[in-house]
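does this look right to u?? zinc ion version
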Amino acid sequence: MSEDIKAVFLGGGSEVGKLGLVLEIEDIRLLLDYGISPTKPPSYPMEAPPVDLALLTHAHLDHCGMFPYLVKEQDVPIWTTDLTREVSNILHIDSLKVAKVEGYAYPYDKVDVKEAYHRVIPIKPFETRPIGDLDLKTYPAGHIPGSLMFKIENSSRSILFSGDINTIDTRLLLGTKPVKCDILFLEGTYSGRDHPDRKELEKEFIDTIDEVVSKGGIAIIPVFAVSRSQEIAMILSNSGFDVWMDGMGEKIAKIFLRYPRYLRSEKNLRKALSRVRMVKTSQNRKHALKGEVILTTSGMLDGGPVLWYIEKLRKDPKSAILLTGYQVEGTNGRQLLDKGSLDFYGVSQKVECQVYYFDFSAHAGHKELVNFAKGCSPEKVVLFHSDNREPLAEDLKDFAEVIIPENGKPFNL
Ligand SMILES: [Zn+2]
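got this back:
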């Protein structure tokens, strides 16, 4: 790669959401991730130019949400893991349903979703595959099951694209490790923010549920369907609580179990799931309200069964809502944290339950990002996927040139 490498973010440079990166190396044009921001209404990245190949890091809508649109517009293969293919497909179908219910137009339909599925050529972690004169190598990203980092290289330079990463071990996954490279594209979601210790956080979480339950309340735990619901089920596995699980988490868990190579422990996930009771019918929902813990989607309270449960319990100050992920600005969960109220199917109502927030992030915190970058020993770091890249840039510039690109503005490397 003696000549320039050209790059442009179609989205997701200066924000967390709708990511898309175009890389042009030796006449090969690659698209890395192509997502939407699943806000209401959704927001989309810029139009992708014709590309030779698309690479997908993982099955979160802000990374995978636009792939059906991509294959509708152009004939392009997609390389990602078999697990990411399965989970993305479910998310695509679900987002079409949400769009229909909410009444907004969507840029693709069921046929395109099917096409995106069939366009995938599965790739495994630690696999090397040629792209023309370039080499691609994959590494597990530690973010969610099936997530990858991509290393692209030729004889002179190498690029590592992190996608979303986590470097600490969780119940579900082992953390990722640095990979030597010349140019590092690094996500910066938690630039300037650190996470609490995971073990202590888990203990505090269980203690809080214990307190709620011992006072006769119910602990409602809103979770993201992909990864968070399974991790929380594993944390609750030995707690002895009467736990009910509702929403898309069970379906995703079953897919994870079909691809055990991506899990830290298939056995522990199976055990955890055998200890929760699955809600299958409306009668089950009523039973769950007589239990102790309800684990349900959606994680930011913007839909899913969680609203049904909270509506039933919202006047009960003994019950509690334990948020398990970051609540993005403009979501129902953010409104609950800031104002103590929730939007129930168009009507805003006060919630008298206790509200807690536990930082079970799937992203590396600031300190971990700095250590990861150091371990990669790059000459240049390109920061993306963050609305606040400066604190991270400040700590990285001691050992690398830091680039902070804007969406839609091409840059050379
Ligand atoms: Zn992600």
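Residues 198-357 form a domain with the Rossmann fold fold (CATH 3.40.50.10890). idk if thats expected tbh
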